[in-house]
Amino acid sequence: MVGRPEALRARPDLAGVWSAADAVFPVRITRSWWDRMDPSDPADPLAKQVMPDPQELVAAPGDLMDPVGEVASAPVPWVVSKHPDRALLLVTKRCHLYCRYCFRRTHQPGEALDPTDAELDRAIAWLDHAGVQEVILSGGDPLALSDDALETVIGRVRALPSVRWIRVHTRAPVTAPDRVTDRLCGILRDHGPAWVVVHANHPRELSSDVDEALARLVDAGLPVLNQAVLLRGVNDDPATLAALFELLVERRVRPYYLHHPDAVAGNAHLRVGMDEGLALVRAVTARVSGLAVPRYVVDPPDGEGKVDVARWVSDGGRGGG
Ligand code: SF4
CA 29: distance to chain centroid? Predict the structure, then answer.
């Protein structure tokens, strides 16, 4: 983890904003990520994702506290249910690195970062009662749990009679690639079918240590998908998106989703408009293999779940920055 003094030596202009931003949403940067970015350049696409910005602290039009409607979709704490066949189990709120645009950046100071044993029991009992066939381990980052803790949770979920496969949503292979150990791959493989959905937004995130982590997952027989977020100043041009998606395919990672940025308070400076996003996706689609084209989706605040942006716009559901 990179310490604040080291980070502020690179960006002394952030000394006045760091603590305030950290109090709203933690500022944490892994060494692996730091080594890939130019920390002194505010326009660096990797730095923009992790360094605090004074604009985070300014309210903006369209800001939402619950941008994807998760509060109303939580039948019990630590579960999000938007569809009858699947549900998210939030196993922690901790991450190795905190992305400044994250739609779950609205933690309240002092709130618990992990479920208690009783809360986890209740969440798993709800999944059992609901009879879901797919459980998506999410967070935070599920790989912020120790191997033992993760194996225990996955074992309990896979023991539910209705559950046919699991999905693990994690940015750790990209932010903390050393976390992808052979033991972790074995746990996921042995409790499968397990799909791993990683999260990379820019070609430069795919450094050699990340490549090796992705290869360990794929070589363990785990299907790996990527979800990216469309972000102003990070990947809002066709060449960058095309390069990202092609590099992922080359690494045997299927681009799955390109998310329209969720309008959470504090990320307005990173949002892209939908018409602009649609034009970008059209340009990318015209130049890359079909294998390299993800679905461009929005997760509206009504809690109904992801919708293709093109359909959302044609149905008149404009909004969402
Ligand atoms: S790793 Fe995922 S959950 Fe954690 S801050 Fe980044 S986007 Fe949010």
Answer: 15
- Which atom of ligand 1 is nearest to 103's Cα? 8
Whether residue 201 contacts residue 244, with contact meaning beta carbons closer than 8 Å, is answered with yes
Query: Is there an atom of ligand 1 within 6 Å of 95 CB?
Result: yes
Tens-place pLDDT, residues 63-115: 888 888 888 899 999 999 999 999 999 999 999 999 999 988 866 667 899 99
All residues at 6 or more sequence positions from 157 whose CB lies less than 8 Å from its CB, including other chains: 89, 124, 127, 135, 137, 163, 166
Q: The tokens 């739609």 sit on which residue?
A: 103
Instruction: Identify the structural domains of the chain with CATH numbers, from first to last.
Output: 4-314 (3.20.20.70)
CB of 140 shorter than 6 A to ligand 1 = yes
Cα-based distances in Å from 316 to 20, 304, 311, 313: 38, 16, 9, 5
**With the C-alpha atoms ordered 74, 259, 278, 306, is the resulting torsion angle positive or negative?**
negative
Residue nearest to atom 5 of ligand 1 (CA): 98
In this structure, the strands spanning 194-198 and 86-90 are unpaired
Q: Each residue of 212-229: pLDDT tens digit?
A: 999 999 999 999 999 999
Determine whether the shortest distance from the Cβ of 102 to ligand 1 is under 6 A: yes
How far, in Å, CA of 164 to CA of 132, rounded? 9
User: What is the residue with the minimal CA distance to atom 1 of ligand 1?
Assistant: 171
> What is the whole-number distance in angstroms between the Cα of residue 98 and the centre of ligand 1?
6
User: pTM value?
Assistant: 0.96
Q: How many other CB atoms are there within 10 angstroms of residue 20's CB atom?
A: 12
Q: How many angstroms separate the alpha carbon of residue 170 from the centre of ligand 1?
A: 8
Residues 181/212, Cβ–Cβ less than 8 Å: no
Position in ligand 1 atom list of the atom nearest CA 140: 3
Closest of 198, 213, 193 to residue 294, by C-alpha: 198
Whose tokens are 């499968």? That residue is 192
Q: Which of 141, 199, 262 to mutate to test the pocket of ligand 1 (most atoms within 8 A of CB)?
A: 141
